Amino acid sequence: MAALSDRLEKQANAAMALSQRSFSRDSVPTRVGVGLKPEHFDAILETRPDIGWFEVHAENYMGAGGPPHRFLTAIRERYPLSLHGVGLSIGAARDLDGDHLARLNALNARYEPGLFSEHLAWSTHDSVFLSDLLPIPYDDESLARVADHIDQVQETVGRQMLLENPSTYVAFKESSIGEVDFLAEVARRTGCGLLLDVNNVHVSCTNQQWDAIDYLNRFPMDLVGEIHMAGYAPSQDDHGNPLLIDAHDRPADPAVVDLYDHTLSLAGPIPTLVEWDNDVPDWPTLFTEAKRVETVLSGHTKTERVDAALAV
Ligand SMILES: [Fe+2]
Question: Structural domains in the chain?
């Protein structure tokens, strides 16, 4: 009984915090943004390119000062910003790292990003930090744990976060809930929004032999505050079946662009990030990729946005 009242009180506190400072889809423009890389700091500040917004990985800015913050401050003064965390281990079967969460809170306060997101994944095991983002089984236990972790994040940061669908390579036999249903229920319990990574949908659906169109048709588009687009690396498993790796090292594949187009036809225009984190190209190449994706987005500006549940 005490646990139930404790949870209800936490939900009430979270709702109050969210009502004071939740995201709206206009918090970054409904345009294409790109992941901000140190290689491009100078080119961006010198040429002021026509890019809708930038996204940074929070973990790259957790030091107190130095050149990274100097450049980010200068770019933040000129462009809308999104903050994307990859290291909080929302899905881990352990308590969140309080120090990491405090640093995330400080970054949100310092830069006031228009969007704030995290992965549905875990990247720590005991005290070991794993560089890859690892998926979790989808069951009642992990659902309750993830919801508790998101409650804690939103209460601490005092704003709504977006939760990103992961790229997966194997199915957990323990899973008893479908991925889309799991994400939708986490959002319903916590009031978080969702970040839909369309490349992750293509990677996971190919690897797991799911139907990507069906996945998208069932996805709660009214909760999506941001889309990710990226490139994958094709490979094969031991049996010769296609195995796609979420590599972020090239332009988005035409099949992923088609899924993006389908997503927008369902959801209307949504701020979209081009993620290119490995083999980072020169600025003109990244800019060209952003404009290619923005052409697709621009084709949907007349599509009505599904946004009923965004105004938490
Ligand atoms: Fe992503």
Answer: 27-298 (3.20.20.150)
Q: Write down the residue that tokens 């599904």 correspond to.
A: 306
Ligand 1 mean position to 8 CA, how many Å? Answer: 32
pTM of the model as a whole: 0.89
What pLDDT sits at residue 132?
A: 55
Q: How far is the CA of 229 from the centre of ligand 1 (A)?
A: 7
Measured in Å, how far apart are the chain's first and last C-alpha atoms? 27
Residue 230 CA to residue 75 CA, distance in Å, equals 23
Can you tell me the distance from the alpha carbon of 51 to that of 49, in angstroms, rounded to the nearest whole number? 6
Give pLDDT tens digits for 163-214: 999 998 887 888 999 999 999 999 999 999 999 999 999 999 999 999 999 9
Distance 168 CA to ligand 1 centre (A): 12
Find, among 34, 38, 24, 116, the residue nearest to 72 by Cα: 38
What percent of the chain lies above the pLDDT cut of 90?
Answer: 72
